[in-house]
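Milestone M4 deliverable, item 7.
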Amino acid sequence: MTPVNSLDLTGFTEREPGVWTDDTGLVLSVHYFSLVPDLPAPLDEPERLRAGLAHGAARAGGGLVEAGFGTVDGVPAVRQLIKVPLGSRPGQAFLGSWTVPKAGCSTVLKVQAAEGATTGIREAVVMAQVGPDAYFRPHPYTGGEQLGGLPSHVADDEEWDARFPRHPLTLVRAALRRLTPTVALDPRFRELPPFAGPAAPA
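Output delivered:
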C-alpha cells in the first residue's frame, strides 16, 4: 500500500501490485518508505540537494541528468532523471521519479525504460552535430567538479527529445510529465509533518 490513491494509468497494464508496463517498454511503479527520506538536503536548499544527488548517482555508477522541484498533488517534491548502465549488456536505462518526502516517510513515483538492442544513436548524432569539444561538460550541479559514473553531456538535454521520440529518455520525460498532474495522494499522508532535512548520523 502507498499514499498514492489514484493516477491515470491509461495505456499501462498492471504486472504486479504497484507495478505497470506499457507497449513502449516503460515500467511505472509507486513506492512507500517508512523511513526518514535519504535525500542529502532539505528541499529549500536546492543547490546543496542537487549537488548531493549528483554525487550519489555518480557513486552508484550512474549519472544525474537533471533534478527539479515542484509539487505532487500540492505537496512539495523533488524530481530526478537518472541514467544507469545496464551492466548485463551495452546501453543505459533511464529512471525518472518524483520523491514526495515527509519528516518520517516518503512516497516515490518512478518511471523507467531501457535502451534496446541498438544503443548510442542519440549520443552519436548529437556529438556529430555539436562537435566533441561542446559535447561533454562538467556536471552542471557541482560547480565544475568532475564526477565519476556516467558522464554529463548535451545529448541528454530535453531539447533533443523531439528528434528522438522513441528514445527511452524521451519516453520517461514525457510519461512523468503526463502522469504527475493525475496523482492523488491520501489526505492522511498530505497532512504529515514536512521533511526538514536528512536524519542526523547515529
